[in-house]
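Quick start: what a row looks like.
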Amino acid sequence: NRVTYARELQETAGLAASNQTVSTYIQVAREYGARAAQAGQNPPHDVEEWTRVEGLWQQAIAQLNLVPQTDLVGYAAAQELKARYTDDLAQIQVRKVQEEQAVRSLAAANTQINRLLASSDTADRGQLISQIRGVINQLEHIDTGTTAYAEAQVLLMQARNKLDQVDAEFGN
């Protein structure tokens, strides 16, 4: 019957268009995911770069969220990718927070060092040692894999040497 054939043809065309749309969403998500993975390679990265990588993962996930549940095969594929991309996004967010904390800790340590340098002539031995230990403690909490780590290690070595020097000067 002609009406049945026309309706089946229309349904088939609609299904093909729907499958093409779902495939496009998934392909675009994969492209965002590939760019995010590439951008996140070879850390350390500054906060701005981690934010850019985070945004790429979020774009990938947003594309996957467009896949309708009515397309069972496409939806299943999208959810599988979404689970992986959500894990990748979470890892990037952790790295971003570590970087933010490292930069803050390094800035705080530099502030302490500047205060210490300004008051080192007037500080008594106990106060000086306490301040140096405070700097050391601040620097020891800077994570590897951050942009602040290398500078923190140099400052940490200098602070430890200064602590040894103060101990030697005061005969401890």
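That is the whole record. The mean pLDDT is 89. The helical segments are 2-39, 47-64, 72-119, 125-140, 149-169.
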